[in-house]
Design goal:
12% strand; 13 helices; alpha+beta; four-stranded antiparallel beta sheet; 301 residues; elongated; 55% helix
Amino acid sequence: PDATEYVVKMRFVNLALEERARHAVPLQGETCRWSFGDGTTSTDVSPEHVYLAEGDYDVTLVLAQGYDEKKCAMRVHVARDWARETGNIDLREAYYDIVKTYDVTRMPPRQAYRAMYFFERVAKRDDVVRVGQSLLARENGLDEDTLFDAVSLLAETMRVQGADFPAARKLLTAYEPRMKDPQHAAALALAAGDIAMWHVKDLEAAEADYRRVIFTYADKADKMTLRKALVRMGDIYRWRHDGEKAREFLRKAQSIPVDDRTPVQRTVRAGFLARSIEEFLAAGDMQFAYGTLVTWAWEFP
């Protein structure tokens, strides 16, 4: 329900060799080299290719036989054909076998980020980590919004995997000071605090992270991020049996508006979340059902 970009599968036909195949003329050592304009390639005669975003791409085919090469290039517009797909929309999972073969080290950073997002959507967490680590190793060319999303997604995937919580927290704290936007920095500090609190069981480290959200970033942080940090601080002092301090933080959290929506917009939003959860449950997608439930709980406390 939150999709703004679509993956598109296309089939490219090598007319020269397809014609020969139709007439049962055997190949004479010819090879094909396709370049799809998004950093990926293929040596199939007539390959299927999944684009991770709509747009215009320069596609090239090189036919080679020995030292003789012929090149064909054209710009291809990639977009969903809504008229044809009204009754036949593919599931994301059907594209996994193609996308998993991509060499993400050769893809532009933005395309590699989209590969991360695709793997997250089809619940292939090992692929998310693999692509995310490769992407952050060569992060030049990423704008801050994309870098923030990539770091957040990688750390959250590592957290869900449960293999190395300290490494996930270290990733968040390493990128926090590199964020120029205080909302991004505050969100990474909050995520680091949650890992320290719930998984590493280090309340002192968690408190330090939450205090940065509350005091270092203060009114520059997103309202929901600030609200969550205050609630977490209330939990920490409640566990320390300091009711007065816990109430102080919780009252501050209560004073922060959840959002700026009108009553009508809030009604629509609640309905949207409920219907989304129903659809995720019907599809057996428990990860997104749970995530949407958590969103609902925070937006409508």
